[in-house]
Amino acid sequence: MRSLRNRFAAGRGYLAACLLGLPADVTRDAVRRDLDRWAVGKASADEYSAILERARGHAATLLGVDAGRVATGSQVSVFASLAASSAPAGADVVCVDGDFSSIVGPFLARGDLRVRHVPLEGLADAVGPGTWMVSYSLVQSATGEVADAASVAEAARAVGARVLVDTTQATGWLPTTDLEADLIVCHAYKWLSAPRGAAFAAFSERAAAEITPRTAGWYSGADPWASCYGPELHLADDASRFDVSPAWHAWVGAEAALGLAASLDAEEVRSHAVGLANAFRERLDLAPSDSAIVTWPDEAGIELAALTAAGITASGRAGRARVAFHLWNDDEDVDLAASTLGR
């Protein structure tokens, strides 16, 4: 991981991958080339489509699925809304208490679903015979806690419930190729360090059959360029039927960022990030964890303010200070943050 640090223009004291990732050299270069080509009228729609397909392949690698199962879009909430809109009235949906709104709000907005919120550690136990879907983040944004995905999948499988997993706070530092879920959703602007506006999702065969592509448009056809006009409904046979018309410039950067992430040894990245996080936890007298995100009580924001004053980029969520360690961080960042807090 030491050599990767040189691929980022900044990074010292940047402990906020859980908020916004930093672009690597390949991502910066791709976005700059695109801007230059666009500025002189040489941007090509066909080239953007080719870029998106390469990005779809990288996303498939990161999720351990075939590219035909991957849909591309702009936001996680759009994919979650597709699932929510397909639930039968009165369906039982289990969420984690305090989970990120993008995978909770769409179900609440229906108004006719039974949405239950339970502690993360009790998620698998809350799944019962009447449960239609479990919707949760693999890594909790507010606390950094990592869910026991295998137990949730087992509980859901036993009763035929569907599973939606958001890996936005996981993919990029935590391997996400062995998840058993009907719908896996991810936005790439955090740990994958892509521009904001590039999200993707993996659909199981059941999800693809049950979920209605209510965002269908010109990009939902097998050949978008042949799907630009009605009156027919143009739907691809694979998960690209759920594609949302791409924000081209965002996907230029995303293709480069996802390609870099997919080329790395995911276990090495996890070991590096969690190792630094645990070294920081030790300095704060916190128990070791399996997460690259470290949070601790800071209701008044005093310690977050101290980190900020020292030039360290961190964040605060739900009355807790929050730092994250990623590819551009090393032991010096651990010492810098801990020393700033007098630890």
Compact summary:
The chain has 343 residues and is α/β, with parallel strands linked by helices. It has helices at residues 2-5, 25-39, 45-63, 76-85, 105-110, 123-126, 149-159, 205-210, 248-263, 266-283, 302-309, 331-340; strands spanning 70-73, 92-96, 114-118, 131-137, 162-166, 183-187, 199-203, 293-297, 315-317, 320-324. The chain folds into two domains: 2-23 and 265-340, Aspartate Aminotransferase, domain 1 (Alpha-Beta Complex); 45-263, 3-Layer(aba) Sandwich (Aspartate Aminotransferase, domain 2).
Description:
This protein is an alpha/beta fold. The chain folds into two domains: 2-23 and 265-340, Aspartate Aminotransferase, domain 1; 45-263, 3-Layer(aba) Sandwich (Aspartate Aminotransferase, domain 2). Helices cover 37% and strands 14% of the residues. It has twelve helices and ten strands. The strands form two sheets. A seven-stranded mixed sheet has the order 1-7-6-5-4-2-3, sandwiched between helices. The chain is globular and about 65 Å long.
Protein topology:
Blueprint: H1 2-5, H2 25-39, H3 45-63, E1 70-73, H4 76-85, E2 92-96, H5 105-110, E3 114-118, H6 123-126, E4 131-137, H7 149-159, E5 162-166, E6 183-187, E7 199-203, H8 205-210, H9 248-263, H10 266-283, E8 293-297, H11 302-309, E9 315-317, E10 320-324, H12 331-340
Helix pairs in contact: 2-9, 3-9, 10-12
